[in-house]
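Summary for the steering committee. The consortium agreed at its last meeting that each partner would contribute one worked example illustrating the joint modelling workflow. Our contribution is presented below. We chose a case with several input lines so that the handling of multiple components could be demonstrated. No manual editing was applied between input and output; the record is shown as generated.
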Amino acid sequence: MTATNHQQASQSSPERDVDLSHSLFKVSSEPLSVDSLVAVVLTGGDGAVVTFVGTVRDNHMGRVVLALEYEAYGGMAESEMEHIGIEMIERHGLHGIAMQHRTGKLAVGETSVIIAVSSPHRQAAFAACSEALDMLKATVPVWKKEYFEDGEVWVGQGAG
Amino acid sequence: MTATNHQQASQSSPERDVDLSHSLFKVSSEPLSVDSLVAVVLTGGDGAVVTFVGTVRDNHMGRVVLALEYEAYGGMAESEMEHIGIEMIERHGLHGIAMQHRTGKLAVGETSVIIAVSSPHRQAAFAACSEALDMLKATVPVWKKEYFEDGEVWVGQGAG
Amino acid sequence: MKIKVLLFASFRETAGLSQGTLEVEPGATLGDVWATLVAEHPRLAPHSGTAAYAINGTYARPAERVSEGDEVAFLPPVSGG
Amino acid sequence: MKIKVLLFASFRETAGLSQGTLEVEPGATLGDVWATLVAEHPRLAPHSGTAAYAINGTYARPAERVSEGDEVAFLPPVSGG
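What follows is the complete predicted structure of the assembly.
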């Protein structure tokens, strides 16, 4: 059985009045571009964009990793990323935040996730990018399977 | 008189044994690309690349900024960036670091500087990128002129 | 009443099922839905302690009640990034 | 002896000169070179407290001696980024 994305409409946040015109929250199988996401979040009022680029590493816990496969609950993942984004915008006064996660099987060196945040000032941008990443790893419904030379395993899910 | 870059050969650092094969230190007038610098610093052993993208902001101290002009002591600037890069690699265990600064007159929204660092782990990458930026702003011989509607001024240099 | 159930990652592979429809009693909670699912797919039982629950794309607690036509998802510990 | 002098940004504009050659005494320090330069371009004088010095592309202190053919640069407070 192949991984599938279960899509649903991204939830809006009518309870808060946050400008998301320079923000983006997306889960898809398409390759990621940092420059594209920087262009999304940048406004004329910004002096700083900080980005995090997560890539497939060739090892984990001392074992050789051949590839990673990402599966997502697409609609909910985008909705959870939006919640994180709104919280970061409010807490750090960002002008924009983009969070995009790739799904499917990725080779070593390929990009799995990018977070880009724009802010008038660099300290807020670094803090928000780092916090958004921690929150993504804690709450956004995406799962990672590691492919080794002698098998495969879903990360952190116990015996399959 | 137009701004000129005074080039000299980039200094090597024979006193230290640091692998700079995934690092780059460059000052030039060409446009900057985040994806290009991510590709420079990324190795198969990395899971994290953090980048800082500095852009021209449309205001400063309450005044409307029309453009910025950057001038550099090119050879020395690249040499100072390399010193910073080596210090960051040694302190944070980075695999690579790229620092590229653009010179010339830039419009609002254009990118003036990019720093990209790669690391097996995200905390080191965030810390190193932020520290490298602070050091760049403190020691790398690059100067910024702000163009306002009613004049122009070199930043932080007193009366011209 | 009928609800839609989604499974992901190791849960999906363990049950051999990515989505399906379950018949549950009116007033059933998410915990009841999970118990019904585990009765059909006993190999999911070891995951009872780690599963997170969602209704219609939002995290929810086990005591939350489901309604006809809800989309209920059972989520292994997330590992994105 | 002859040395090469580079000026940047506000220093360059103030002196109306981006590079030139100065004749200084053997044994002259960077501070002496700056003083010679200020004598030729008095409008640089107000910047004496903020100028940083470099010899051949490396920061150096005012007491450092220069040698024939050195490239000496006087740097306003940097403002890159």
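Helices of chain D lie at 9-15, 30-40. DSSP finds two helices and five strands in chain D.
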